């Protein structure tokens, strides 16, 4: 593996993954469950602070133990092969592939508003986007990196257009109208939506082995990206609030569309649809890049999955791992099509498993500090052990909240996670037989 990625590439990747469709939907839900402008902006600022705390923990792990497997590698060192294998299995079958399918359905939903393709328009767009982005990244990291940088630039430009138009040119809604939706203050549920909107910065761990000057650039890319994301989120929420007010946001089903309608009139629908589609593409591309690295690590560690552990040198990318990830994502697109609840099905499927392993990875930092105190740590999480303990508490809170929210969907994701146990035993037996 070659160190081909710069701090700009890493920052672009993180921003592209994090700034997804959430910021065009979550603010209305946050407004509904806060009901107060001060609290509304405070929770968005708190979301950035919590993400930064988590990033500082990940920065120590990524610089001390750089590896394309990211969390998989940290879990192996701290907790052993079984939880690490289950993480890689879950990432291959539930978390990353589920996220790719979820974003693909959002892309399909919005593009279908611009150019409908019939009864299964959303699914057609979803499947096509998975296939095309997988092919682009299989062609090489340069192509995947270029696509990511371009998509991230388009997202930021689109958000700045909404911010500038809303803050300086659009008129706010007339005040005095009776609220159509009563506020329902629920601070705990509010943070679930906020932190989901900030989610994805941890994907930087999967490019640690490919990042130039890892010691400096990992920390820089995490701090820069989260700072930029928080700044943009605060600005665009200020735009929503200025134009719609708290009641307007709370009663809006498409807050970005409603703001754009005040800026550009009827043409706002198409602009918002295209912006959301670009956001989904950007997040998908970033998740495809980082997700394939875990599959690669799985193939390097377990002989049963050996075919995933090949690295195409000239393209500087794990092509087979990308292809397998793409196939599973397409199967999940098919599942979402059959259930007729594509996006919702994928959210319920992925969230609890994701936060469970987020907790275990943060716990790994504490274990490795105790077990391996002599290891070189170019960066140390400040205020240790308060920082990782605090973030572990956040992860547990999000795990419990996501289980309460998803219900049966959580059971499906957990069932597939448990299905990895027989594969672990077979793989372990297979390794013994080879010896």
């Amino acid at each position: 593996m070659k160190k081909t990625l710069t701090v700009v590439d890493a920052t672009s990747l993180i921003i592209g993954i994090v700034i997804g469709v959430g910021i065009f939907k979550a603010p209305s839900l946050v407004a509904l469950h806060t009901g107060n402008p001060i609290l509304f902006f405070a929770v968005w600022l708190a979301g950035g602070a919590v993400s930064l705390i988590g990033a500082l923990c990940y920065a120590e792990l990524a610089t001390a133990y750089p590896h394309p497997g990211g969390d998989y590698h940290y879990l192996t060192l701290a907790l052993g092969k079984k939880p690490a294998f289950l993480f890689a299995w879950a990432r291959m079958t539930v978390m990353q592939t589920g996220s790719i399918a979820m974003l693909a359905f959002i892309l399909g939903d919005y593009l279908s508003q611009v150019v409908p393709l019939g009864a299964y328009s959303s699914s057609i767009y979803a499947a096509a986007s998975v296939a095309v982005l997988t092919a682009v990244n299989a062609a090489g990291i340069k192509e995947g990196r270029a696509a990511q940088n371009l998509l991230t630039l388009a997202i930021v430009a689109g958000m700045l257009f909404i911010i500038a138009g809303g803050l300086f040119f659009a008129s706010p809604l007339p005040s005095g109208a009776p609220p159509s939706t009563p506020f329902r203050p629920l601070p705990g549920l509010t943070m679930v939506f906020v932190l989901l909107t900030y989610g994805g910065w941890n994907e930087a761990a999967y490019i640690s082995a490919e990042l130039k000057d890892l010691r400096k650039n990992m920390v820089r890319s995490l701090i820069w990206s989260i700072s930029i994301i928080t700044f943009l989120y605060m600005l665009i929420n200020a735009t929503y609030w200025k134009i719609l007010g708290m009641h307007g946001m709370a009663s809006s089903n498409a807050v970005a569309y409603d703001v754009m309608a005040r800026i550009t009139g009827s043409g706002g629908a198409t602009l918002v649809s295209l912006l959301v589609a670009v956001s989904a593409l950007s997040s998908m591309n970033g998740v495809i890049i980082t997700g394939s690295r875990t599959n690669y690590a799985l193939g390097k560690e377990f002989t049963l999955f050996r075919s995933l552990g090949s690295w195409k040198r000239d393209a500087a990318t794990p092509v087979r791992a990308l292809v397998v990830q793409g196939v599973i994502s397409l199967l999940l697109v098919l599942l979402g099509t059959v259930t007729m609840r594509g996006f919702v099905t994928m959210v319920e499927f992925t969230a609890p498993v994701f936060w469970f392993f987020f907790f275990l990875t943060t716990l790994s930092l504490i274990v490795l500090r105790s077990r391996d105190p002599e290891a070189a740590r170019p960066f140390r999480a400040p205020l240790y052990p308060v920082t990782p303990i605090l973030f572990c508490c956040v992860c547990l809170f999000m795990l419990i909240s996501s289980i309460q929210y998803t219900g049966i969907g959580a059971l499906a994701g957990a069932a597939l996670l448990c299905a990895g146990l027989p594969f672990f035993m077979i793989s372990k037996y297979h390794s013994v037989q080879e010896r």
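Residues 170 and 263 are 5 Å apart (CA to CA). The chain has 16 helices and no strands.
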